[in-house]
Amino acid sequence: VQLQASGGGLVQAGGSLRLSCAASGRTFSSYTMGWFRQAPGKEREFVAAISRSGGSTRYADSVKGRFTISRANAKNTVYLQMGNLKPEDAAVYYCAADLNWPLVVPLRWGQGTQVTVSS
Description:
The N and C termini lie far apart (37 Å). Helices cover 0% and strands 51% of the residues. It has strands at 2-6, 9-12, 17-24, 32-38, 45-50, 57-59, 67-72, 77-82, 91-98, 108-109, 113-118. The chain is mainly β. The chain is globular and about 40 Å long. The strands form two sheets. Strands 2, 4, 5, 6, 9, 10 and 11 form a seven-stranded mixed beta sheet that branches.
């Protein structure tokens, strides 16, 4: 599967942004999907994951209640709706895919999309 993330940009603190990740290749619904992020000087960290059917989700504690991951298997796309953004949410966001649940070490990575949050 190949992954293409989009939707990043500049947003003010408290604002919202929706990231999308379009997949091509093998059957999208076979994959657990997730989002990770990496801020400058920091390690890449887990943000959210969603199971193949979309029935199960997991979030990092830092984004619970503010971010929502969802997927549209008919469109081969996974989304990350981000709300009440904080300056510490600024990072390059990567979508990822794996065949296992929960998602721990992704099999595939997409290219990143930059999210900048101004205070």
